[in-house]
Specification:
four-stranded antiparallel β-sheet, 53% strand
């Protein structure tokens, strides 16, 4: 609220109200502006998936993703009990459960594949082999899973939780430092 009531005496009697209160930096006062805060997120990591390593039988599905249309590279080391094929398959779907793309990845070595999707990825399904019927009973471990923007596979980096930054007028939180040694400089208090 932009209103403060003030009291005097005992018991307290309301004497008046201050409204449209504004605290400013500097020595000049300006016309009252209602408080407006903007909050935005920034992701400092390149890995878009918060999975890491997973072991499963047949298939493993991750939902609730929100990865925009574009070109991506998926990298992982896969080990599988499947002896019929030398690759495992990963499918990418949109919110309507329509398949956008799939990739086949070699096993027993760090492998990567690049693909392009024309819609937002909301679901990923990884198989122990190349498909549902073929993977039956097979177990797989997907180690150090990484999905990154672009067509170049880079060294694995764990997922970073996006950071919330705030802004009010000309004042905003910011990030400083280098990729492996960064910090947040808060100029706006956290809610």
């Amino acid at each position: 609220s932009s209103e403060i009531k003030y009291y005097e005496g005992s018991p307290a009697n309301e004497i008046g109200t201050y409204s449209n209160i504004q605290l400013e930096v500097g020595t000049e006062s300006t016309t009252y502006e209602a408080y407006q805060s903007q909050e935005y997120e920034i992701n400092l990591g390149k890995n878009l998936l918060d999975i890491g390593t997973t072991t499963f039988t047949l298939a493993k599905t991750y939902t609730g993703l929100s990865i925009p249309a574009g070109s991506y590279t998926f990298s992982v080391k896969i080990t599988s009990s499947d002896t019929d094929y030398s690759k495992s398959r990963v499918y990418f779907y949109n919110a309507s459960d329509t398949q956008l793309a799939y990739i086949d990845l070699l096993r027993d070595t760090r492998s990567s594949a690049t693909f392009t999707v024309s819609d937002k990825i909301t679901k990923i399904t990884m198989y122990a082999s190349t498909a549902y019927g073929v993977s039956s009973g097979d177990t797989a471990t997907y180690e150090n899973i990484q999905l990154e923007k672009g067509s170049v596979a880079t060294t694995y980096s764990p997922y970073f939780t996006p950071i919330k930054l705030n802004k009010i007028g000309d004042y905003q939180d910011y990030i400083t430092g280098t990729p492996n040694n960064w910090s947040i400089k808060r100029q706006i208090g956290e809610k």
